[in-house]
Amino acid sequence: MLHLKLATDPRWVNIVEKNIEEILTDHAWCEQKAATNAITIITLNSEYPDLVTDLLLLAQEELEHFQMVHNIIKKRGYTLGRERKDSYVNELYKFMNKGGSRLQSMVDRLLFSAMIEARSCERFKLLSKELKDPELSKFYHDLMISEAGHYTTFIGFARKYGQDIDVDQRWQELVEFEAEVIKNYGKEETIHG
Fold first, then answer.
1. pTM of the shown model
2. Are 3 and 115 in contact (CB under 8 A)?
């Protein structure tokens, strides 16, 4: 369903398990950034009422996820660390068309967002299956389902409003680009790292 070209090496979970506090802090900030991204898309494309409505709900859900991760951090006696830079997302951002039409920019932003959700979903699935911690395993299973819904929302709006753009071709180009980017990741205890 997610159409990712390169799967995460399952050994990444071994890295994650060595520093649960770090993965939780990174994850919390990923959720905050996802909420901010949805709000940015709304701000730039407020003339689409259905997009605004659905992305407001998505942003709220991302903030709820941020709170859920923060609650786990507190429950375990950890402290939410400082915001983390997400090099994967920054590299993926380079794919976006900066000089195209407003519509092209919107479609690219939606596809960029769908890709991040797809990779997060794939990583959460791996965590849900491979983590030895039952609480976190269930937590990531539940979030995996949510991320899949977010992926569908973003790609659905790209297809709906990108009628004059070959959205499927652009998506395939992004899938190829992401496959090259992700080859450099999977070595750190971060959601995308």
1. 0.94
2. no
